Amino acid sequence: MYAGDDDGARAMITGAQQRDLMTNPDALVRLAGPSLPVVRAALTYGKQAVAVVAETLVVDGLRLTMKKSGGMVWCSATCADMTLGLVGQTSVIMQAMDAALRAAGASFADVVKLTAHYTGSASEEDLHGNMKVRHDYYARPGPASTGLPVWGLGNERCRIAVDIIAV
Question: Is residue 12 domain-resident?
Answer without folding.
Answer: no
